[in-house]
Amino acid sequence: MTGLRRVLLVDDDAAVREALAQTLDLADLEVTTAGSFVAAKDHILRDFPGIILSDIRMPGRDGFHLLAYAREVDEDLPVVLLTGEGDIPMAVSAMEKGAFDFLEKPCAPAELVEVLGRALAARQTTLDMRAERERAQSGDPAARMIFGTSALAEGVRERVRRLAKTAAAVFVTGPPGSGVSKVAEVIHLCSEQARGPFEKRAAAGLDRAGLHQALSSAAGGSLFLDEIRNLPADTQITLIEALEETGQARVMAGSTVDLDETMLNGDLYYRLQVASVRIPSLAERPEDIPVLFRRYVHQASEQAGLGAPQITPEHLAALMAQDWPGNARSLMSAAMRFVLGMPEGVSEAAELGLTEQMARVERSLLIAALGRQNGHASDAARALKLPRKTFYDKLAKYGIRPEDFRR
């Protein structure tokens, strides 16, 4: 289980409360216990980073009162209620009143953990979407146009803001489909040149005259040259000369391939390395996939004139189990297929079964941790809160080499 782990456990029976807390603790969940609604009330806040598990029958304010209060504070806060064995009418009433789910006591630990896992996944999605909306409404283009709630996504936004404050030429890199030209445009929109034009040109086949024309068109703004490695050699020299002049357009270059000095004019290569930003792949930040997919589904629904279909936690888990070599672009395509009722790739992932899906998610999280820590295995293990031996065993299991992630 990944993501949120916090459970507020409410039960007036101390023995039952202790037994349930032990079960949840063994499932690696973070448990806060309360013996009554009054004791639990102070923990129930909007944006509470977890879920609630409560008995229904309690003296004074019962579980239904707690459910009503929780929904008043935050209507999206999942509350799982415990009912007496065979008490079907009460269970039906609980669902009608907005409970996430109900369980009969005594319940099997595996069933309890499975239900709470679904509730936690739903809560994680809710909180991620709220954070994303707040970022999108916060004002600057970096918040509105670069999506994701992970530390890597926030790192890109901060890097973009810093680069926007300079006048230096910028080099934007990222894997195919990650939005290299989009990030360049965000830098432009965050800069003092935002009111000027943003011109995009393919570097392949761009001759010297074409470069001069592009610089003229972008005067007072920014010129983005896509796949800079394909710029003809003589045009590269002209570009170096243009970078030495002031008062022209700001130049930004992009590449979906890792470059070295042998792939460009050496002078141009080192000039571009001064101010650069790298867009991480989705494989490095799988925790962003649910947030991005929900956004793309909303956009696709509007474009198609259709209602947005429900996205289940199981569907999101299947998405996270995939590698997404096409990154954001392929995730957008998957969202459109999902809206149109044709989610072939996700269906295939879902048919793998829980064990294989979880293995793929685990592999993605290991890769993401190594990417964030620049291939330093000890730091990645610490970030995932795993013993080093366990971490290395998992790397061996999936054939992952830390050195492949060192930059």
From TrEMBL:
UniProt entry keywords in alphabetical sequence: ATP-binding, Nucleotide-binding, Phosphoprotein, Transcription, Transcription regulation, Two-component regulatory system
Endpoints of the signal sequence: none
Modified residues (4-aspartylphosphate): 55
Domain named Response regulatory: residues: 6-120
Family annotation (SUPFAM superfamilies): CheY-like, Homeodomain-like, P-loop containing nucleoside triphosphate hydrolases
Domain Sigma-54 factor interaction: 146-340
Gene3D superfamilies: 1.10.8.60, 3.40.50.2300, Homeodomain-like, P-loop containing nucleotide triphosphate hydrolases
A UniProt-annotated Pfam family: Sigma54_activ_2
Alphabetical list of SMART domains matching this protein: REC (SM00448)
PROSITE patterns membership: RESPONSE_REGULATORY (PS50110), SIGMA54_INTERACT_4 (PS50045)
Protein's name in the database: Sigma-54 dependent transcriptional regulator
